Amino acid sequence: MAALNVHKPPNLIPALRIALRGHAILENPRYNKGTGFTLKERKAFGLEGRLPYRTNSLDEQCDRAYTQLNQRDTPLRKNTFLQSLKDQNWILYFSLLARHLKELIPIIYTPTEAEAIASYSHIFRRSDGLFLTFPDEDIMEEMFLEQTRGRDIELIVVTDAEAILGIGDQGVGGIGVIIQLTCDILREAHVKFRFLQQNLSYTRKTALKTAGLVGGIDPSKSLSVTLDVGTNNEDLLNDPLYVGWPERRIRGEPYDRFVDKFVQLVRKYYPHSLLHFEDFGVTNAHRILDRYHDTHAVFNDDIQGTGAVTLACIISAIRVSSRARASSSSPEKKKLSEQRYIIFGAGSAGMGIAVQLRDAIVSADGLSRSDANRLFWMIDRDGLLHQNLEIQGVTEHTKEFVRSAEEGWGGNEHVSLLKVVEKVRPTVLIGCSTSAGAFTREVTEAMMRGLDEGAHPIILPLSNPSRLAEATPKDLMHWTSGRALIATGSPFESVKMKVDGKDMEFFIAECNNALIYPGLGFGSILSQSRTVTDTMLIAGAKRLAELSPAISSTDDGEYNGAALLPDFGDSPRVNFEVGVTVAEQAVKEGTATADWSGTTDEERQRGIQEVRNRAEKKVWVPIYPEYIYDQNGQNDA
Ligand SMILES: NC(=O)C1=CN([C@@H]2O[C@H](COP(=O)(O)OP(=O)(O)OC[C@H]3O[C@@H](n4cnc5c(N)ncnc54)[C@H](O)[C@@H]3O)[C@@H](O)[C@H]2O)C=CC1
Ligand SMILES: CC(=O)C(=O)O
Ligand SMILES: [Mg+2]
After folding, report:
1. Model confidence, pTM
2. CATH no. for residue 176?
3. Catalytic residues (predicted)?
4. Most buried residue among 302, 355, 409, 599 by CB atoms closer than 10 A?
C-alpha cells in the first residue's frame, strides 16, 4: 500500500534540519513523529526497521490516540494517558487537544488535574520541567543553564505550589498545574483558520472543522519551573513516596533570596521573556508581583488573569442586565461604577479581582481610586473586612478595601455574608473562597430581594475544582427563577428550565483565567513588552467581553441564555484576538520593545498596523514539518 504523505505543508512550515538519528529522534518528544515519519525521513534518520511499514497521517494518528483515550474509563486515567502521549510526541498531543479542545480541557485542567496533582508522587512516571530545590540553591544557575542552554525561551511558568487551585499546598506535585498551563498557552493562542484554509487545502476538512490546527508559542520556547521550597502538607511530609523535598516550607529572607535568585537568572538569560507566576500562597503572591512588576514582564495569573477574565465576564453580564432593565421602569445602570460588588474570599484571586475591577472603574468611568474602592465589600474567614475587626496580616492592597467603622458594622465581630448582602444589596456576588456551598439559598434570595426591578443578579462562584464551587448553577438558577447571570471557575452543564412558561437553556460560562491568560501572554511575548501593564490587561479583558456570545446574541434586548463568555472550545480564536489587542496596547503605550514596534509616535502607529501580521507569523502550529538530516542541525529538546 502506498504510504500517505500529507505531512509537509508547503510554504507554511519551514523544513527542520535535525542532527538526531535512530533511537535519539524517536525518544525526543519534540521531534518524534512515530508512524508519521515519511519513507524519505525514515531513510535519512536511520529509522528503517525501527517502525512498522505504514506511514500514518497526523489525522490517522489522532484518530487512533482518541480511540485509545476513550478506552480509559476515568478522567484521571485519561489525564495520565494524555500526559504519556505528550512525553512521546508533542505535535500529536497538541493536535489531539486541538481537535477535541472542549472535551479535553476538563481532563487536562480543572477539575481532573487537581486529582492528578494530589496523587503526583504516586502516579509519577517521568519528570517534566525544571525543579529548583531549596537545598540546591548554590547550584541553581548550573541547573537552570543545563535545561535552557541554547534555547530561545519566551515563556517561563513558575509555581511554588503553596496554593494549587483550591486544594492548597501540593509540594512538588504542583508542577502538574503549570505544565498544563504552559500547554494551554501553547495550544490556545491561535487557530489560523483562514490562513490554513487557504494553504492547507489537502488537509482533511475535519481537522479544520473541529478547530484542529491550533498553535501559539513553540513548546520548545517555553519552560515550566517548580520552586521546591518544602511543603506544609502533613500528608505529603509523612508519605514515604513523596518525591519532593520533605521539609517544612521556608519563609522570610531565605525564601525571598531563593525566589530572587531565580528571577535574576530569568532576567539575565531571557530579558525579553514573560515570567508567569501560578498558585503562589497569598502572602507571597502580591509581594512578588509588586517587587518585579516594573523590572520584567511578570504576570501573576491568579491575581491578574483572574482579575481580567472576571472583568470581561462582568462587562458582559452588565450589558445583559442593563438591556433587560431598559424595558422596565428602573434605570439601566450600564456602568461598572453603578454596581455594588461583594467578593467572598479575599485571597489572591479575590484581591486580584477587586483591584482589576477597581482599576477598570477608575479608567472607564473616571471615579477617584478611593471612591471606586467604596464599591467593594470584601469578606474572608472572619467575615466582612471592616475597621473594627482585628484582621491578621492585612496587605497594603487589602487595606484599601476595608470598610469604614462609621458604616456601623459593629465591633470585632464576624459580619456574615448574609448580613452584608441584606445591608449592601449587591448587584454582583463573586466567590473565590474554596468554601463549597457558601452561596446558600438564603443568601441568593436575599440578593434577589435587594435588586432593582428587572435587574439580573450577577453571581460568579469561581472556586475550583468543581466540588468547591460556592454554589451550583442549577441551584442558583432555580433559587432565582431563571434570573441569575452565572459563570463558574470549572465547567458546569447548561441548566434547562421553564421560565414564565417558556423552555429555556442557560449556558454557563467558565470564568477561568485560562480563558484569557494565553492571549495576555501571547500579546506580551509578541510585543516583547518590558512590563505587563494594567492597561494592557484591561484592553485584553474588554476585547474578551466583546467576543462573548451573551453580548452578540442579545442585541435586541431579550436574554436568550447565551454564555457570558466565549466557549473554551473557541478559545484559540478568542485568545488570538485578545493577544493582538494586548500587543497593540503595548505598542501604543510604548512598553513594547519588539524591533518593529517603533519609538516615535509615527513609528508606533505603523507598529500597531503591523501587530496582526506579526501575530499570524509567530503562531506555532502543531503540524509535522518536513525533517532534513543535517549533522550540524538541531539536537536539543
Ligand atoms: N476561576 C478562576 O479563574 C480562578 C479561581 N480560583 C479559585 O479561587 C479559590 C481561591 O484561590 P486563591 O485566591 O488563589 O486562594 P487563596 O488561598 O489566596 O484565597 C482564598 C481565600 O479564601 C478565604 N476563605 C477560606 N475559607 C473561607 C470562608 N469559609 N469564608 C470566607 N473566606 C474564606 C481564605 O482565608 C483566603 O483568604 C480557589 O478555589 C481557586 O481554585 C483562583 C484563581 C483563578
Ligand atoms: C484557575 C486557577 O488559576 C486556579 O484555580 O488557581
Ligand atoms: Mg491558579
Report:
1. 0.90
2. 3.40.50.10380
3. 109 (proton donor), 205 (proton acceptor)
4. 302
